[in-house]
């Protein structure tokens, strides 16, 4: 049985479908996993937002990268002159190439093209190093923002269900690691804060119910 690991993480389902068709046509076994989360604990963009994982046998990674690059054509004359990459610095363009798994192959090809105009080539070793650093980073838990914690406590203290939602998210949110295992997104200290929020929210909720019942009986 093949041991599939994350090859690419995408946020656009159309691109994921396009890649799936190409991989299937070239008989490269793969799986996809939608890691969409229904709740955004920070009420803004965060790293736990929806992503679609394309998972392959690690032995097929290089072949898949080559196949996708070959089958996604770049016509420089058809690229919008307002494309953001045209305003990227040299280092930013190199980051696009080194983080190819976060970009559409057309963007990666364009970045390589623009770098080539400067006689710059990103060596495979640089790409491998960056991917290794990202893999190591994925094993470390994230630190929740002060704003998220503050909002969680405020909502819990006023009896809002949003506070309990934040608490549960901090305590239970997980991500899938490149090796296929799951790990809590947030650190132990943040998960403890989530537990404290949940206790505060539960106590406030109980007192609110008792107050309403007492008030109703008085009537």
List the helices and strands and how they pair.
Blueprint: E1 5-10, H1 13-25, E2 30-34, E3 52-56, H2 61-71, H3 90-98, H4 105-116, H5 124-138, H6 146-157, H7 161-172, E4 174-176, E5 182-184, H8 188-218
Antiparallel strand pairs: 1-3, 2-3, 4-5
Write up this protein.
- About 6% of the residues have low confidence.
- Helix 3 packs across helix 4, helix 6 crosses helix 7 and helix 6 packs parallel to helix 8.
- The longest helix has 31 residues.
- The protein has 8 helices and 5 strands; from the N terminus they run E-H-E-E-H-H-H-H-H-H-E-E-H.
- Strands 1-3-2 form a 3-stranded antiparallel beta sheet, covered by helices on one side. A two-stranded antiparallel sheet has the order 4-5.
- With 219 residues, it is mainly α.
- 53% of the residues lie in helices and 10% in strands.
- The protein is elongated, with a radius of gyration of 23 Å.
């Amino acid at each position: 049985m093949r041991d599939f690991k994350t090859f690419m993480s995408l946020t656009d389902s159309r691109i994921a479908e396009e890649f799936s068709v190409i991989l299937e046509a070239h008989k490269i076994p793969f799986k996809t996993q939608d890691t969409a989360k229904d709740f955004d604990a920070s009420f803004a963009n965060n790293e736990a937002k929806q992503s679609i994982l394309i998972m392959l046998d690690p032995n097929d990674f290089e072949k898949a990268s080559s196949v996708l690059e070959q089958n996604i054509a770049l016509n420089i004359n058809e690229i919008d002159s307002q494309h953001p990459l045209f305003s990227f610095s040299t280092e930013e363009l190199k980051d696009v190439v080194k983080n190819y798994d976060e970009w559409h192959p057309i963007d990666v090809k364009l970045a390589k093209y623009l770098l080539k105009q400067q006689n710059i080539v990103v060596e495979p070793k640089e790409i491998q190093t960056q991917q290794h650093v990202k893999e190591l980073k994925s094993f470390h838990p994230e630190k929740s923002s002060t704003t998220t914690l503050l909002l969680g406590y405020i909502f819990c203290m006023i009896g809002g269900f949003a506070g309990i939602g934040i608490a549960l998210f901090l305590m239970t949110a997980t991500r899938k690691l490149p090796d296929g295992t799951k790990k809590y997104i947030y650190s132990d200290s943040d998960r403890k804060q989530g537990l404290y929020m949940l206790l505060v929210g539960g106590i406030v909720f109980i007192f609110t119910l008792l107050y309403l019942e007492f008030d109703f009986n008085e009537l």
